[in-house]
Amino acid sequence: MTHTLFALLQAGYYAEPHAARFDGATIGMFFLIILIGLAGYLVQARLQSVFKKYSKVPFPGGLTGAEVAEKMLRDNNIRNVKVTHVAGHLTDHFNPKTMTVNLSDAVYSSSSVAAAAVAAHECGHAVQHARAYAPLVMRSQLVPVVQFASSAATWVIILGLVILASTQNAIVCWIGVGLISLSALFSLITLPVEYNASARALEWLKVSHTMQGAQLAQAKEALSWAARTYLVAALSAIASVLYYVLLILGRRN
């Protein structure tokens, strides 16, 4: 997001007469990126607030996040995944390479509604892996490709703009856009993965009677706000692609 805003502010072609037709679209994109950035900040702030609030609500039965995770794995007949502790705040994740559910400081040993919800969500990813959930498999396959694309895209775009300025050949620019589009595709695929993991978590919490009533509703609220952070990230990635498309079209025309 920061890189895109920086590139937008640095772009000097807006004053060129032949690019005038793109001014309105580019300015609109500028405000769209700002709005998405603001939305991301507000969603993240709300997530932190909700997590802090429900971290103070005791979990019925007194199970810790680690114990909830272990119970959900057992109930889903998953025996090859270990529950481990990692440092940090909301750094919880499932690692398919090490077959571990990694829970953060505020989740692993906490007996709160928030901790139980996060632990169950991460176990939802373990269940997806065990069931070969298609979007998760696709996302895992894209990881090395996206890592390369993310590191190379900026330099390819810069090289492409230099070539475009001197030769009017935009092929390298479009290759750069293709690399950026891979990151956007990754963000889009991440959405069903995260929403499905939350749905699996909430279904298990309900069916297993691990949570009921108000606590279940609180867990649902916490996971809903967590999922919205991925939605904003996907919108941001799409906006970045559209921005560079407008940038290249403006340079060509």
Sheet of most strands: 3 strands, mixed
Overall pLDDT: 85
The H-and-E topology, N to C, reads as HHHEEEHHHHH
Tally of strands: 3
What percent of the residues sit in helical stretches (DSSP H or I)?
over 70%
Low-confidence stretches: 1-21
Number of helices: 8
Widest sheet, order of strands: 1-3-2
- Describe the global form: elongated
Decide which structural class fits the backbone.
mainly alpha
Computed Rg: 22 Å
Please report the distance between the alpha carbons of the first and last residues: 26 Å
Percent of sequence in beta strands: under 5%
Quick tags:
73% helix, 253 residues, 8 helices, disordered N terminus, elongated, mainly alpha, 3 strands, three-stranded mixed sheet
What topology does this entry show?
Layout: H1 2-10, H2 23-54, H3 65-75, E1 82-85, E2 93-95, E3 100-103, H4 105-108, H5 113-130, H6 134-167, H7 171-207, H8 213-252
Helix pairs in contact: 2-8, 3-5, 5-7, 5-8, 6-7, 7-8
